[in-house]
Amino acid sequence: MSAADLAAASGLPEDVVASKFGVLQKPVAGPDEPTSELGLRAAREALKDAGVPAADVDLVIWCGAQHKDYPCWLAGLSVADKLGANRAWSFDMEAMCGSMMAALDVAKSLMLARDDLRTVLLVSGYRNNDLIDPAETTTRFMLDVGSGGAACVLRKNAGRNVILASAFRGDGSFSEMCVVPVLGSRAWPPRSGDADRPFFKVPDEEAFKRKLGETTMPNFYAVIRDSLAKSGLSEKEIGYLAILHFKRSAHLAVLAELGLPESRTTYLEDYGHLGQNDQLLSLQLGLASGKVRDGMNVVLVGAGLGFVWAATTVRWGPYPG
């Protein structure tokens, strides 16, 4: 969908969608592309890039969206089967759009604790745009949400691209401030018409905006600095910031707070917000453009609705010891 498409669907001017919301275009999955398929495609590419056969994978962690092919269903096991990862066990986990960093930390912890885990595959699929009504004014901040998949291979003692430390902050007082109010167990069984309105809503928009304005940016800064400090680094040592897509003013505010030029990150205006896939997408674009180089400290950062803020620091390139 282009900015013009989004403007027509939302009733907003096209220049507002492009400049304020920071979306020139975004990918949207079709009816034959369920959530798991997006993750599966990414997983195949990740294994190919890593030069790792699917048969070597010990564990598949699905860290994609809860909005999956079926309710109460394990997407990770389906992906593992279709890949031919026949030795792997699997589980699904969710921290909304903070899931990739949470999965990196969980996978690292499991690999350190267990001697039977050498290769872990993280897989994410996301098409939460299905749950966004562009005409719903209370959720216009989610107008950038699109579809996509991401995956990465983690290998114990790989000798490069080491995961250093992660940091998280949560605030559960947001938990019911932005929800899909139908088709869940709180509104079960569904009533007539519920299937026609499976969209996010903000019941009290003024309270939500006020609370978000008070907490979100300080928590972004906190998890970035905590992740760096736990890694023995400072913000001056950030080589590249792989940050989620959000409105342009917030993106620039983070760079200003950290003293980073725009050349140290990638603004995802041609993709929008692809949930927990943003960080790996940004990293891949940074590698392709030459912004990410060996020896750099890369900080992955995002936030999940509900709310959880998350950051992980990675030392890119060869790593001795």
> For the largest beta sheet, what order do the strands appear in spatially?
2-1-3-4
The assigned CATH architecture of the largest domain is 3-Layer(aba) Sandwich
Instruction: Describe the global form.
Output: globular
Largest sheet: 4 strands, mixed
Q: Supply the number of structural domains.
A: 2
| The named CATH superfamily of the largest domain | Thiolase/Chalcone synthase
Question: What's the CATH class of the largest domain, please?
Answer: Alpha Beta
CATH fold node name of the largest domain: Peroxisomal Thiolase, Chain A, domain 1
Structure class: alpha/beta
How many helices? The count is: 8
Share of residues in helices: 25-40%
- Could you tell me the mean pLDDT? 96
The proportion of residues in beta strands is: 15-25%
Regions with little confidence, pLDDT below 50 for 5+ residues? none
| C-alpha termini separation | 46 Å
Write down how many β-strands occur, each being a DSSP E stretch of 2 or more residues: 8
